[in-house]
């Protein structure tokens, strides 16, 4: 199915109403992807408790179609919630590469953004974007569940801008993001 | 030494546009609490409601059309046969077309059910857990959530893990869902509204329902992942051992109805005791309730749902046998689970709740067409499935096996014995 | 010929062992803990817990921070209940500085720690329900926990890392409407604990899954030096609030909750009953809340305590949390060692897991209620 | 049982165990002259009711901490203006008895009569060896591995003395005062 869609821009180039088909296909695909972003239960430290709080009753994320999935194979978004230590960097990379293709990363909390309160520690990675491309950063230590929700809204806007002409690549990959081991 | 250049005059910052009209701060209609205070004024909400209403009317209309046309099923077939012979086409072609129509109708029941029950489960589980299920997906209470999930899963990258055995990995989902679709052939959708009227209906259904365990084990073994191997083996043990009580709990129903044919079983439950209580098998004093409960528990175990969801226990085996599946292959597993739940609820409605028959003999109830009664009973049983899932914790593997072999099976044998006594003395 | 001999006789039937990684990314390991399980069929033959995936080296960082800055680091040890972390560091530093917190500050400290214990046990009830397979209690427990977090937010502005207890007292005083809201919460919360009992504690499947599973005898608990509900679950009566009272715990009456046989259910039930005791303590503190300032005078902006050593320990939600502070008279602590209860509660796994089934591994791991921030520090 | 009774009882049994000059605030602290009498003292304490090994740690008295052990740019404080003098380093305090020695600390608790005693043992920094208490107390197993990992103290008789907290590729023992951090691939 993905293969047919990759050929669609080429096919519709010559047809009279070609662009109309492309834009409607884009709109439908992006709507589908936007409304069902499935994160992976991947809590590292204190931000994980806030993430659990956001799946709970008051900040219910199921409203936006966000259900936490246990296995990386079925997840679209990886929320890196907490301090990324050097010993944990290896498993994170492995899990990132197990996720199927249109995947996104939300770096939650100042520890994941740039090392946070552990800026000078010998065993903390100064920001998860040193090993995997990050789509949305959330400031705060730990950021409030509303901030995580706003990050999902921002991610949805980013997903809505993906289009077939650019070959279903995620916005991050279009900019040729630095994926060390891609 | 030239004097440092004066800093370029920066353009003054634009005046912040406050939400102010002629001086008064406008109550921002976009604030969520206001927005959902009176939702009907929202365009998205109204359009969503209209779309949903259109879809529901379409499905009900289609159902009613098929319900009515099925009454003249034989005449239609005769008409087609006559037309075919006039044109010189062989009757085999007519049969093929006739069967194709029925298969398409039943297949659509299963697929539409997939859409409906996944959304329904997420809404019910949310309201049980004092939260609000998907609301933004289709504008009106998130009705399009499953469609969005479907579109996204359709376009996910299809990963086959390197350590996996390619063919077995790709074939497993097919083997899980194919028997379930085939098992829907004799299932009753209303009084004598079934795709195929088999006189060995019950046996046929249980035979096909048993094949899916091969697919699950294939998925478990072929994924090359230790967790899915464990999940696959657990699933095999569980499904095979719960086939027995499920089969034996239906034997009293067959003894009372006198035949394996589902429609005969449904008709055997028509009529009313003392003019009020419907003669459903579930209301037979002791035998009915015990058989109903054993069949319900065994069906829950058969469809791998909590409290028997050991194969895909999220907290232990990460994802169970479908850990390594992504995108469309995984959603086939997901669809198969809900198809089996639908199959189980239709069987429960047919065996124990007098499928198609109306619970009260008076006028307004009997005028309701039989397929609406059948659908409402099946949906009620599906609600019980969902309700059990979100309240009970999970059993351990050996407890689950002990419960089956040491509790369910002996009770189903005792139930058959008591049913025999009923036949000998009461139902002569 | 016994069955084992029979299977051994036929080599093809001998089941080889499987090495399974209860990996660093696993829904029910409460964070990043890896347990290398060697299993045979469903039974575990060998278990090697592997920690350090969240080791941030806070003990090394404390040696480069001022005393006031270290209080920020303490919030991130046991991030589920971080009030006791602040308290234990401040008690040790106050012993070095020779400063005594004001009576009102002591009462506020006790109240905040007990509220935080309730919030932490609520999170435990929720996640333990998910480990055993019941998804719904998680949502109910988090509904109450959000109310407590609202109270904390009213007082100190943060939901999780409060930084509320400072050297010499408490950050800010408590407003009258805060105490009114607290009373209202306590009235609302008491019947809720019975609801958890009915929903989870006395649920037959839950009891079947947890009673008689992961038995830890009193001698083993003492030898592995467990602490908190894990120790009391095995019947040992030891509570730092009674043994070594601090901040005025001696003039509140509450009883120490003790389990009987040290099974997963006993540890779970100790925590649920402890919530009731904490509600009793908070009510008594509210009743006789002393007046006066909340911050002791005489704490310098950059404190330089006299050279010496101090050890303070507190009954945190997970056990007996202690801090050993050594000062050489300089700006920053010369050495700060954290006696983390979860680090010791986790060590017993390598011996207890052998011979259990996989579902019981999750049950036992959940019942010890460890938090990885505290294990790895 | 007050501290003095406990000290008296202990000195009757072990005359060499002296009360240390620097006491841990309001707890009894005893120091042992050599590492051979650690096991007898621990065994005796266990019989006396101190059967709960509460804490096991080490302190490095070499001198103020070396700033190269941290990954810090020259001026990490963003609020200081460009070129300002970096934040005050942790300077040595005049008159404090720094000595090149690792001091191992054990804390035993007796739950019956709510008493706590700290036992100290000074060990040379380079060949830091000490007998392992994992025979008497099972909880010593992980705590000794942690002190080995962060300080480099080798405990004789420990079942498996390996790294527990720091990542495998980290050389050196971080909590030593003279630890210098070697940049690895995650630091560039």
Secondary structure class of chain C reads: alpha+beta
Estimate the global geometry of chain C from the Cα principal axes: globular
Number of domains of chain C: 1
- Give the rounded overall mean pLDDT of chain C: 89
CATH domain class name of chain C: Mainly Alpha
User: What is the percent of helical residues of chain C?
Assistant: 40-55%
Q: How many helical elements of chain C?
A: 16
Q: Any idea what the CATH architecture of chain C is?
A: Orthogonal Bundle
Question: What can you tell me about this protein's structure?
Answer:
The complex is a heterotetramer of chains A (182), B (428), C (377) and D (188). Chain A is an alpha/beta fold. Chain A is built from seven helices and four strands. In chain A, helix 3 packs across helix 6. Chain B has 428 residues and is mainly α. In chain B, the strands form two sheets. A two-stranded antiparallel sheet of chain B has the order 1-2. In chain B, helix 4 crosses helix 12, helix 6 packs antiparallel against helix 7 and helix 6 runs parallel beside helix 12. The N and C termini of chain B lie far apart (122 Å). The model of chain B has no long low-confidence stretch (mean pLDDT 85). With 377 residues, chain C is α+β, with helices and mostly antiparallel strands. Chain C has 16 helices and eight strands. Chain C has a three-stranded antiparallel sheet. In chain C, strands 6-7-8 form a three-stranded antiparallel sheet. Chain C has a two-stranded antiparallel ribbon with strand order 4-5. The longest helix of chain C is centred in the first third of the chain and has 30 residues. The chains are: A alpha/beta (182), B mainly alpha (428), C alpha+beta (377), D alpha/beta (188). The interface between C and D is large, with 47 and 49 residues.
């Amino acid at each position: 199915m993905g293969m047919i869609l990759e050929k669609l821009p080429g096919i519709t180039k010559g047809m009279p109403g070609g662009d109309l088909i492309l834009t409607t296909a884009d709109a439908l695909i992006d709507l589908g992807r936007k409304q069902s972003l499935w994160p992976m239960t991947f809590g590292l430290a204190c931000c994980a408790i806030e993430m659990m709080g956001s799946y709970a009753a008051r900040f219910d994320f199921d409203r936006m179609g966000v259900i936490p999935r246990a296995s990386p194979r079925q997840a679209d978004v990886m929320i890196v919630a907490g301090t990324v230590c050097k010993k944990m960097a290896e498993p994170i990379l492995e899990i990132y590469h197990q996720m199927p293709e249109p995947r996104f990363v939300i770096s939650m909390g100042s520890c994941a953004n740039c090392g946070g309160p552990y800026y000078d520690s010998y065993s903390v990675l100064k920001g998860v974007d040193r090993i995997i491309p990050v789509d949305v950063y959330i400031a705060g230590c730990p950021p409030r569940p509303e901030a995580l929700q706003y990050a999902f809204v921002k991610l949805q806007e980013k997903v809505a801008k993906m289009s077939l002409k650019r070959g279903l690549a995620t916005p991050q990959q279009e900019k040729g993001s630095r994926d060390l081991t891609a | 030494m030239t004097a440092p250049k004066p800093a370029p005059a920066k353009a003054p910052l634009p005046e912040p546009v406050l939400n102010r009209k002629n001086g008064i701060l406008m109550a921002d209609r976009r604030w969520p609490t206001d927005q959902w205070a009176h939702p009907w004024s929202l365009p998205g909400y109204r359009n969503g409601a209209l779309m949903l209403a259109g879809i529901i009317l379409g499905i009900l209309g289609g159902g009613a059309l098929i319900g009515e046309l099925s009454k003249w099923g034989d005449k239609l077939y005769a008409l087609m046969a006559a037309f075919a012979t006039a044109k010189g086409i062989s009757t085999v072609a007519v049969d093929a077309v006739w069967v194709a129509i029925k298969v398409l109708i039943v297949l659509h029941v299963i697929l539409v059910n997939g859409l409906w029950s996944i959304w329904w489960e997420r809404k019910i589980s949310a309201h049980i857990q004092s939260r609000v299920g998907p609301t933004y997906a289709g504008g009106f209470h998130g009705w399009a959530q499953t469609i969005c999930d479907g579109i996204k899963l359709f376009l996910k990258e299809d990963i086959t893990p390197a350590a996996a055995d390619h063919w077995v990995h790709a074939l497993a989902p097919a083997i899980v869902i194919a028997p379930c679709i085939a098992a829907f052939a004799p299932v009753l959708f209303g009084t004598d509204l079934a795709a195929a009227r088999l006189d060995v209906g019950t046996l046929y259904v249980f035979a096909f329902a048993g094949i899916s365990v091969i697919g699950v084990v294939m998925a478990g073994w072929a994924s090359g992942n230790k967790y899915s191997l464990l999940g696959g083996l657990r699933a095999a043990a569980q499904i095979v051992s719960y086939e027995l009580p499920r089969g034996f709990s239906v034997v009293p129903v067959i003894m009372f109805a006198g035949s394996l044919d589902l429609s005969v079983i449904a008709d055997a439950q028509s009529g009313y005791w003392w003019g009020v209580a419907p003669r459903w098998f579930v209301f037979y004093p002791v035998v009915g309730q015990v058989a109903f409960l054993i069949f319900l528990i065994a069906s829950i175990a058969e469809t791998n749902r909590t409290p028997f969801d050991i194969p895909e226990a999220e907290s232990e085996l990460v994802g169970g046998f479908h850990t390594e599946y992504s995108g469309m292959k995984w959603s086939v597993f997901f669809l198969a689970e809900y198809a089996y739940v639908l199959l189980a609820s239709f069987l429960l409605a047919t065996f124990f709740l007098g499928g198609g028959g109306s619970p009260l003999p008076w006028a307004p109830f009997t005028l309701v067409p039989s397929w609406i009664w059948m659908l409402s009973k099946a949906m009620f049983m599906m609600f019980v499935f969902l309700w059990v899932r979100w309240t009970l914790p999970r059993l351990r593997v050996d407890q689950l096996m002990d419960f089956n072999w040491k509790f369910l099976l002996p009770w189903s044998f005792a139930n058959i014995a008591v049913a025999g006594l009923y036949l000998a003395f009461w139902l002569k | 010929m016994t069955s084992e001999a029979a299977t051994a006789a036929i080599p093809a039937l001998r089941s080889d062992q499987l090495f399974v990684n209860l990996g660093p990314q696993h829904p029910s390991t409460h964070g990043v803990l890896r347990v290398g399980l060697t299993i045979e069929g469903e039974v575990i033959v060998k278990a090697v817990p592997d920690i350090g995936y969240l080791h941030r080296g806070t003990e090394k960082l404390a040696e480069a921070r001022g005393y006031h800055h270290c209080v920020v680091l303490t919030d991130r040890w046991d991030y589920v209940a971080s009030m006791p972390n602040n308290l234990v560091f401040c008690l040790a530093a106050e012993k070095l500085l020779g400063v005594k917190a004001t009576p009102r500050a002591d009462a506020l400290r006790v109240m905040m720690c007990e509220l935080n214990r309730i919030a932490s046990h609520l999170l435990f009830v929720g996640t333990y329900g998910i480990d055993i397979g019941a998804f719904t209690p998680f949502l109910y427990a988090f509904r109450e926990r959000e109310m407590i977090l609202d109270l904390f937010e009213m007082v100190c502005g943060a939901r999780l890392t409060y930084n509320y207890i400072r050297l010499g007292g408490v950050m800010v005083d408590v407003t009258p409407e805060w105490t009114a809201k607290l009373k209202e919460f306590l009235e609302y919360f008491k019947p809720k604990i019975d609801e958890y009992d009915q929903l989870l504690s006395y649920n037959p499947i839950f009891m079947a899954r947890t009673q008689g599973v992961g038995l830890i005898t009193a001698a083993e608990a003492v030898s592995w030096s467990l602490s908190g509900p894990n120790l009391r679950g095995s019947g040992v009566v030891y509570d730092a609030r009674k043994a070594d009272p601090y901040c005025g715990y001696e003039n509140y009456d509450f009883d120490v909750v003790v389990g009987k046989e040290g099974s997963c259910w006993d540890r779970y039930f100790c925590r649920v009953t402890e919530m009731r005791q904490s509600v009793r303590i908070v009510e008594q503190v509210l009743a006789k809340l002393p007046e006066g300032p909340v911050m002791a005078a005489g704490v310098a902006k950059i404190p330089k305590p006299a050279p010496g050593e101090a050890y303070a320990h507190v009954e945190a939600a997970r056990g007996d949390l202690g801090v050993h502070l050594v000062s050489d008279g300089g700006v920053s602590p010369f050495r700060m060692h954290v006696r983390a209860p979860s680090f010791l509660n986790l060590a017993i796994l390598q011996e207890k897991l052998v011979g259990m089934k996989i579902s019981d591994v999750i049950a036992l791991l959940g019942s010890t209620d460890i938090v990885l921030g505290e294990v790895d520090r | 049982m007050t501290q003095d009774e406990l000290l008296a009882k202990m000195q009757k049994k072990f005359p060499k165990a002296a009360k240390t000059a620097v006491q841990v605030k309001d707890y009894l602290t005893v120091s042992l002259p050599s590492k051979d009498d650690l096991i007898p003292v621990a065994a005796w304490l266990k019989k006396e009711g101190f059967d709960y090994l509460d804490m096991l740690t080490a302190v490095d008295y070499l001198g103020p901490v070396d700033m190269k052990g941290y990954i810090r740019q020259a001026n990490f404080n963003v609020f200081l203006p460009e070129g300002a003098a970096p934040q005050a380093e942790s300077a040595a305090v005049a008159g404090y008895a720094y000595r090149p020695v690792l001091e191992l600390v054990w804390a035993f608790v007796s739950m019956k009569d709510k008493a706590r005693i700290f036992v100290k043992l000074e060990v040379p920094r380079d060949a830091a060896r000490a007998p392992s208490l994992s025979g008497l107390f099972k909880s010593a197993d992980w705590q000794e591995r942690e002190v080995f990992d962060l300080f480099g103290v080798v405990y004789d008789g420990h079942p498996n003395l390996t790294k527990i907290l720091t990542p495998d590729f980290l050389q050196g023992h971080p909590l030593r005062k003279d630890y210098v951090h070697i940049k690895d691939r995650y630091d560039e």
